[in-house]
Amino acid sequence: MNLKNSQLAINGGKPVRTKIWIDNFTCGEEEKRALAEVIDSGYLSKFEGSHTPDPPFSFYGGEKVQKLEQMWCEYYACQYAVSMNSATSGLYAAIGALGLGFGDEVIVSPYTMSACAVAPMIYGAIPIFADISLESGSLMPEAIEKLITPRTKGILVVHQFGIPAEMDGIMALAKKHNIKVIEDCAQAHGAKYKGKPVGTIGDIGVFSLNVNKTIQTGEGAVCVTNDEDLRYRLALIRNHGEAVVGAAGYENITNILGFNYRMTELQAAVAIEQLKKLDHMTELRLELVYSFAEGLKKYDCFVPLQKCHNCSCENACKPTFYVFPFRYLPKIGGVSRKELFEAVNAEGMMFYQGYVRPLYLQPIYQQKKAFKHGYPFAASENKDIRTNYFAGACPNAEQLHYEEMVINEHIRLPHTLEDVQDILQAIDKVLNS
Ligand SMILES: *Cc1c(COP(=O)(O)O)cnc(C)c1O
After folding, report:
1. What is the position in ligand 1's atom list of the atom closest to the CA of 160?
2. What percent of the chain has pLDDT over 90?
3. How much is the pTM?
């Protein structure tokens, strides 16, 4: 490889690709028709923060919201689904529903979306960051185990990039230490761990329907659970719970300050159509993913993140790849990630280097200031908790972020195998320069 080669676009040569990349477009005629139907009905939402029936309004929302939840239960073979206006809201509601709060530690991933670590703090609990696997990008049971204390009451595991985390190990720890498990499946629609849909293994699963996810309704989410009380608590937190519990005679009112996390009928109508298309869109995306992964194989310097969980049955673990992450090993490649991917991107590509800065390095953790007076860290219940908000706390996350991880987003629809060929050609051109 000679990065000074004048044929390379970075040195003024002709780029492999000039065609622009397209964002994640997943909606079509079906969604338009579904929206028109709701608009014609006149009721864009049918939620009401009360158990007193006042048709067509209801505490559980309108037909579209309830239909979406029912379809979600069928698709995921779970008992209850509770829609939300975002997965951020869903994560907050999950922490609340599980009764976590002041004095509790919740183990979270440092290498994920910010709300995962904020969710515990909303209720006064403290996030503790465990390291992730270099192979899957998700929390490792070994790293979690080292951080468990008598105050560990929750684990919020993310199936990062749509690659299932090691749930057997995590659930075994949870059982042994009586810890609640939330699965963040924002990026993992349809992914399976040993044959089971992710999201249905822990206590509550949270799926995002944000515009960037594999299926979407602009903003939205669905929580799943098999526990009837958790389902009710999620529904209370979604919909002004404190105004309802008295009349309902529900006694376990801790954390039942309600918010408004309700989904509109419009969003639910789009989400219904998107769920119908999920399997088809996943299969199309996986074709692109595996064609790209195949093309990377001839280079020793690239290692895809794709953990196999060694189960006996074939294909039982199914990653669904929200994006396609891989490691670039600079020692083998001979140049830094920055040098290599600046040259590749100059060929008309848009590879991302790294994902998010490990969360514990953000000011909110460095300064321990979430709320006024340093709460929740400064609360008397939390004062003795030993946090791990320092550089080096999660070496794998830092290694992936600062040195090795590269993300290819162009395995998303509506891209095609031809687009994947462009991407591989750009990599070949630079590596063979
Ligand atoms: C997108 C995302 C969220 C938040 O989802 P919203 O619906 O946008 O609030 C949470 N966790 C992960 C891992 C995500 O990718």
Report:
1. 13
2. 93
3. 0.97
Read off the pLDDT of residues 384-413 as tens digits, 9 standing for 90 and up. Answer: 999 999 999 999 999 999 999 999 999 988
Which own/partner pairs from 247-256 qualify as long-range (CB within 8 Å, at least 24 positions apart)? Answer: 247/51, 247/52, 248/51, 252/99, 254/99, 254/101, 255/96, 255/97, 255/99, 255/100, 255/101, 255/123, 256/96
Tokens 């080292």 belong to residue:
146
Distance 111 CA to ligand 1 centre (A): 13
Please tell me the distance between residue 372's alpha carbon and the centre of ligand 1 in angstroms.
26
Atom 1 of ligand 1, nearest CA residue: 186
Within a 10 A sphere around the Cβ of 149, how many other Cβ atoms?
A: 13
> % helix / strand / coil in the chain, to the nearest 5?
40, 15, 45
Whole-number pLDDT of residue 312:
53
Cα dihedral 396, 401, 403, 405 sign? positive
Q: What is the mean pLDDT of residues 92-121?
A: 98
* Pocket of ligand 1, beta carbon within 6 A: 86-88, 112-113, 115-116, 158, 184, 186-187, 208, 210, 221
- How many other CB atoms are found less than 10 A from the CB of residue 432? 9
Write down the pLDDT at residue 413. 87
How many angstroms does the Cα of residue 277 sit away from the middle of ligand 1? 20
Other Cβ atoms within 10 Å of 389 Cβ, number: 20
The reported pLDDT for the residue numbered 13 is: 98
